[in-house]
Amino acid sequence: MTATGGAGRSLLLWLAALPPALATVGVLWFSGSELAGRTPFSIGPPANIAEAAGLGSGAEVLRLLRAGHDPYVVLPIRREIISSTVTKASAVEAAVWSRRVQLVELLVREGALADPQQRHHVLCLSRDVGVGDIVEYLGKTDSAPCESGSAQAAVQARSAP
After folding, report:
1. What is the pLDDT of residue 6?
2. How far apart are CA 134 and CA 152, in angstroms?
3. Among the ranges given (8-17, 25-34, 37-46, 80-89), the one the predictor scored with the smallest mean pLDDT
4. Which of 95, 89, 97, 121 is nearest to 109 (CA)?
5. Which of the ends of the chain has fewer CB neighbours closer than 10 A, N or C?
6. What is the pLDDT of residue 28?
7. Closest by Cα among 45, 53, 82 to 70
């Protein structure tokens, strides 16, 4: 009985030690990945200025603007950043979906919304998306009416496969 009892106890000890050992290996793998620059459980850094705006990353948007990136160019955006129906947008449009009025203010300060037509488009998109802070901010200088839903529909149509 001692041979069987010893083997059973040994098996029990191994089974008890297995979950903490696997957890430790997982934490070490995750930490190593983070240190190596890979982010296994995040969407990663923005690929372009539109993604940076969609993520609400004002610092990255400012860096890319000052590096010469055009905030009006329509760029691909990963589905998880805005939505599965918006996969192509400009940085000024993506800024609306970030729902951060500070980002829109930054774009205005940097001259990215100097074009009255583009500014009006962003205002109408803000109304369609329901971002009251941005509507209020842009509405101070633009009171022209918007066709309800048309700005958002235009962005979504461009993203259609």
Report:
1. 74
2. 15
3. 37-46
4. 95
5. C
6. 87
7. 53
In angstroms, the CA 126 to CA 83 distance is 16
Lookup: tokens for 17:
């030690």
pLDDT in the model for residue 16: 86
| Residue 123 in tokens | 């205002």
Strand ranges, E, within the chain: 75-76, 88-89
Beta carbons of 120 and 143 less than 8 angstroms apart: no
CB atoms under 10 Å from CB of 34, counted, come to 13
* 49-159 CATH pick, 1.25.40, 1.10.10, 3.30.230, 1.20.1050: 1.25.40
* Domain extent listing, the chain: 1-42, 49-159
Segment 32-85, tens digit of pLDDT: 877 776 766 666 789 999 999 999 999 999 999 999 999 999 999 999 999 989
pLDDT score for 72: 93
pLDDT in the model for residue 40? 63
